[in-house]
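Training component of the fellowship. As part of building independent skills, the fellow (R.M.) carried out the full modelling exercise for a liganded target. The chosen ligand was iron/sulfur cluster. The inputs are recorded below so that the supervisory panel can assess the work.
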Amino acid sequence: MMLFPKIIEYQPYSICNANCTYCPVGHLNREQKLKGNSISQEVFETLIEQTKSQKIERVSPHLNCEPLLCKELPDQIKTWKKYHPNAIIDLSTNAVFLNEKMFLNLVDAGLDILELHYMGVNKDYHEKAMKTNYEKVKGNVDLALELKKKYNVKMDIVVFSHRLKGASLSQWNDFATSLQEKGARISLGPLWNRAGWYGKEFEKKRKGILKSNKPYPCPKPWNQIAVEHDGEVVLCSLDYKKVVKIGNILKNNIIDIWNNEVMKRYQEGQNDIKKLKKLDLCNECIRGGRYLINEATLTKLVTKKIENPIAKLFYKKYLQVIDLF
Ligand SMILES: C[S@@+](CC[C@H](N)C(=O)[O-])C[C@H]1O[C@@H](n2cnc3c(N)ncnc32)[C@H](O)[C@@H]1O
Ligand code: SF4
Ligand code: SF4
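Fellow's submitted model of the complex:
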């Protein structure tokens, strides 16, 4: 049986304005002096053409770039909704360009989930982590939440942050509960090592104990395709150097790419630890599932709101202990 990805992740723009310390995209864009341009109409139309007869569950137009730099993004979302009305369109942004006009255009286009990648426990922490202006991003996050309330918008807003050194769970708890009061959903996830990109440096950034040192099977080679702005298909968002050669949608059909020899090796390798250890990138990849405290538990811990001051004091002490894990 021929497989087809259920999740389409693509790159609406070629570069990112930010330069997060835990994501190679901004750094690589600067090093390679890459020019900013939107996905070509030809690549976008090919994506639609090659997926329209398939059942797609999610579309994520945020592969390795800052998607709000793409002026055509709201029109692209409308097109996805036209051909895949049941697919969830889930967009992640660093929120620097999230003004009122863009927000309302995204709502109007039918966006289902807006993920705001924000590290704002305090100004210093945020700016060191993402190298974007704290006041600007905080203002944009607050504005989006106010507009959601004002216009009674259904679209889900999720503030998405990463647990890394320099902030305690107690600080994340204050951050999370204040944003929840404004109507945001919160997600705090452990840091990924970007498929080994950071080598030993990663230990200096991350917090949390790993369950195991062995590679861990991943659903992405089965479920999720990653298409760059020029039509190139990469293994996943972590193949920054295009180590795994898979294909280009302008030359081959997605269904053939997804069932070619390279993809088969990556798909079957997820079910066999010996094979997994031999797969470039996957063999070094530390993702959320490898941590003792995963994203769901971290999120539950930091979103707990306690009114009673004494109970709150005890809860903060409890978080101090959990922070050791
Ligand atoms: C690469 S970004 C592209 C979209 C946009 N620039 C943004 O930051 O939301 C896509 C997602 O990767 C996440 N991400 C980046 N570095 C990460 C890391 N080291 N571990 C886990 N997630 C990471 C971001 O939080 C974001 O949700
Ligand atoms: S995580 Fe997003 S905002 Fe940060 S550098 Fe990567 S692509 Fe840019
Ligand atoms: S395990 Fe492999 S496919 Fe999955 S995220 Fe890591 S590098 Fe990508």
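The panel noted the following from the submitted structure. Residues 16, 20, 22-23, 25, 62, 64, 66, 92-94, 115, 117, 160, 162, 189, 191-192, 194, 237 surround S-adenosylmethionine (ligand 1) (CB under 6 Å). The chain has a mean pLDDT of 97.
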